[in-house]
Amino acid sequence: MNSRSYDIAIIGGGIIGLATAMRLTQEHPDQRVAVIEKESVIAQHQTGHNSGVIHAGIYYAPGSQKANFCSTGGKLLRDFCDERGIEYEMCGKLIVAIDDSEVPGLEELHRRGTANGAEGLELIGPEELREHEPHVAGVKAIWSPNTGIIDFVRVSEAYSTEMRESGGDLITDAEVRAISTSNGDMRVETTAGDFSANNVINCAGLHADAVARMMGVDTGVRIVPFRGEYFSLKPESARLVNGLIYPVPDPSLPFLGVHFTKRINGSVEAGPNAVLALKREGYSKTSFDFGDAWGTLAYPGFWRMSMKFWKTGASEQYRSIVKSAFVKSLQTLVPEITGDDLHAPGAGVRAQAVDRSGALLQDFSIAETKGAIHVLNAPSPGATSSLSISRYIVDLAKESFGLGA
Ligand SMILES: Cc1cc2nc3c(=O)[nH]c(=O)nc-3n(C[C@H](O)[C@H](O)[C@H](O)COP(=O)(O)OP(=O)(O)OC[C@H]3O[C@@H](n4cnc5c(N)ncnc54)[C@H](O)[C@@H]3O)c2cc1C
After folding, report:
1. CA 43–ligand 1 middle distance (angstroms)
2. 195 with 306, same domain?
3. Which CATH number do you get for residue 160?
4. Residue 213 and residue 259 in one domain
């Protein structure tokens, strides 16, 4: 057997590619499966830079894939971690209306969350709110006991180990540069040499649209990278936050607004905002890549999106540059916070698919083309939902690639 020949090549060793590879190798041991990853280790991008929250499924439109994948995915994830002794903590979460004008939006979220099957949601008043979080200001809140925290890199490592134990290969330091088809086989050219595959699953996150284009696929969307910048609270200030504290978000945007997130290592993060990144993997304010920046700026959908959201975009940019504006947003939730409580800035970059009309895709987007499946939009709660997304992809692959039962 040629060791560089596979039945299925999965491009991208983030949490979704690895969850898919694990399920494929376990359910279809006859298939030779490889995960091809450009970095030297897995989970370096969205998966390794996310907030580490196991979402309960509150925000999402009932019936959407986000709602469906998140509610089942959260349970599957916790069962997976229980069986393997992977640490997580169901610390609960508050979504806080800071004044009466936010109460209708909060109540709508409560209705949505309940319709989505998020367990144990309660609408609580200011007294109970301060029993959970004594330093938070607000008039009403949703208490979600079924929200938790976890290290998604640790989860991805477990998926990767089980995938390899079931016969799959992980090929690192292999950036996919081109994909061509001949005699029904796909030739995947990488920086670590060429591979052939009968089928490809594109889980390339921030580069998913570029990988699809390598296969000649017009996806109708472009990934626009949005950096989410945050600070950590100094250890002596972490006492201001017990768990997860979120604002009522703007329903027209797929982002949740700056919030406080307790991490599984006990630290607390404040943020993230959402600013346009001029590099797909641009983790600092000065990150710039000509090709990525040009790709975004030359895309008509980007300008249509900018026309719709220019006010929000401008205020996010301002908050990114002026720390006191960032602190002011945090003070709406925790008035005692000052700039002196913050240190250790960090960032993640979200892969946000934008269509030609300028709409930000709110839901997951997974498309099939001949011999391939493409994960084109996998925003939050993608990590929480990784096991249900992988189940969906493997079911698609059974049909689409003609895999046996
Ligand atoms: C700031 C932020 C906060 C978030 N918070 C949460 C949260 O709290 N809870 C939650 O459930 N979800 C959260 N999410 C969403 C979640 O992180 C993503 O849905 C999930 O990580 C997507 O996984 P992925 O495997 O699709 O992408 P990624 O993790 O980005 O993986 C894609 C992989 O593809 C590789 N790749 C790309 N191009 C190539 C190529 N040409 N050749 C080879 N390899 C390639 C990359 O190196 C990368 O490893 C958050 C996301 C961000 C950015």
Report:
1. 7
2. no
3. 3.50.50.60
4. no
Most confidently modeled range among 148-152, 251-255, 311-315: 148-152
Domain boundary, last residue among 335, 355, 375 = 355
Asked if residues 8 and 397 have their Cβ atoms less than 8 Å apart, the reply is yes
Residue 176 forms part of a structural domain: yes
The answer to whether position 62 is within a domain reads: no
pLDDT at 293: 97
201 in contact with ligand 1, CB cutoff 6 A: no
- Does residue 2 carry a pLDDT above 60? no
Yes or no: say if 276 and 288 are a contact pair by the CB < 8 Å rule.
Answer: no
pLDDT at 371: 95
My answer on whether 262 and 335 are in the same domain is: yes
Which residue lies with its CA nearest to atom 41 of ligand 1?
176
Q: Which residues contact 7 (CB under 8 A, 6 or more apart)?
A: 31, 32, 33, 197, 198, 199
Rounded Cα–Cα distance for residues 23 and 51 (Å) = 25
Give domain status of residue 298, yes or no: yes
Q: How far apart are the CA of 338 and the centre of ligand 1, in A?
A: 31
Pick from 47, 191, 376 the residue to mutate for probing ligand 1's pocket: most ligand atoms within 8 Å of its CB: 47
Residues 134 and 283 in one domain: yes
Q: Report which protein residue has its CA nearest ligand 1's atom 52.
A: 50
* Number of structural domains in the chain: 2
**402: exposed, middle or buried (Cβ count in 10 Å: 0-12, 13-18, 19+):** exposed
Do 268 and 348 have their domain in common? yes
Q: How confident is the model at residue 393 (pLDDT cuts 50, 70, 90)?
A: very high
CA distances from 73 to 65, 84, 403 (A): 11, 16, 24
Express each pLDDT in 16-26 by its tens digit. Answer: 999 999 999 99
365 lines ligand 1 (CB under 6 A): no
Atom of ligand 1 nearest to the CA of 384: 11
> How many C-beta atoms surround the C-beta of residue 62 within 10 A?
14
Is 53 a pocket residue for ligand 1 (Cβ < 6 Å)? yes
Is residue 330 assigned to a domain? yes
Which domain range does residue 33 map to? 5-47+153-220+363-400
Q: Is 212 a pocket residue for ligand 1 (Cβ < 6 Å)?
A: no
- Does the pTM surpass 0.70? The reply is yes
